[in-house]
Amino acid sequence: MEFEIGTFFMGMMIVVGGVLMVRYYKEISDNFVNGISSYDKVRLWGLGVTIFGLLFAFNIVQWLLVTLIKMFIPNI
């Protein structure tokens, strides 16, 4: 896998979205989820989105998918 600038910027946009979820978790919970009972859930999802964005930005997600596919279908 090689570095691609488009994938990097897309990953950084995902990271920004995750950081905004962590930053504004109360507003998101109050308006879109069940309120105070889901504050921690929204922050956890935001952290997960941020980590996924970092992995996506550096092509680690694509590398893992290719590795898993080659493990199950070795002829590709």
Q: What is the beta-strand fraction?
A: under 5%
N-to-C SSE series?
Answer: HHHH
Major sheet size, sense and barrel closure = none
Q: What do the pLDDT scores average to?
A: 92
Number of strands: 0
Derived structural class? mainly alpha
Count helical runs. 4
Helix content: over 70%
Radius of gyration equals 16 Å
Summarize the structure.
This protein has 76 residues and is mostly helical. The chain has four helices and no strands.
Overview of this protein structure:
The mean pLDDT is 92. The protein is mainly alpha-helical and 76 residues long. The chain has one domain. It contains 4 helices and no strands.
Keywords for this structure?
76 residues; mainly alpha; 4 helices; 0% strand
Provide the fold topology.
Blueprint: H1 5-23, H2 25-32, H3 39-57, H4 60-72
Helix pairs in contact: 1-3, 2-3
